[in-house]
Amino acid sequence: MQTLPLRLIPGDDLRAALEDAVRAHALPAAFVLQGIGSLSVAQLRYAGVDRPAELRGDLEILTLAGSLSADGAHLHMSVSDRDGRVFGGHVAKGCIVRTTAEVLIASLPGFRFSRETDPRSGFPELVVRPR
Q1: Please, which residues have CB within 8 angstroms of residue 83's CB and are 6 or more apart in sequence?
Q2: Per its record, what are the GO molecular function terms (predicted)?
Q3: Count of domains for the chain
Q4: Of all helices (H) and strands (E), which one includes residue 55?
Q5: Residue 88 to residues 10, 24, 109: CA-CA distances in angstroms?
Q6: DSSP letter at 47?
């Protein structure tokens, strides 16, 4: 396992920046070990809902985890608002960094991740192959 620490800056799209990092560093299989920071906008898709909910304001990233491949990301995140209410779900594009996001990515050089539609779920699901 190899690690890649990242710091995202204000205005970055969290999901897009992580997908870009995977491509820029040619990581065949990676996952997010942990992420913290803040957002001004969070786009979270809740379980069983087709469209993401948009949260706006001063949001703290409490947890961030998921898998990353050249085919895209599958990320889940929990955030809290200024009143301490916690929201969590699937990370969609449009999560905008407010002050910083500090993310630690782990790369698994012996594997290759891809996302292929699974007929049972109907979604692009993770496929793990040895390299």
Answers
A1: none
A2: DNA binding
A3: 1
A4: strand 53-69
A5: 21, 28, 30
A6: T
CATH code, domain with 51: 3.30.1330.80
pLDDT in tens, 31-73: 999 999 999 999 999 999 999 999 999 999 999 999 999 999 9
DSSP annotation string for 6-46: EEE-TT-BHHHHHHHHHHHTT-SSEEEEEEEEEEEEEEEEP
Query: What is the DSSP code (8-state) at residue 49?
Result: -
78-116 exposure pattern, b = at least 16 Cβ within 10 A, e = fewer: bbeeeeeeebbbbbbeebbbbeebebebbbbeeebbbbe
Q: Give the contacts of 60 (CB within 8 A, at least 6 positions apart).
A: 36, 37, 38, 79, 80
pLDDT in tens, 86-101: 999 999 999 999 999 9
Cα–Cα distance, 20 to 26 (Å, whole number): 10
Q: What share of the chain is helix, strand, coil (3-state, %, to 5)?
A: 10, 65, 30
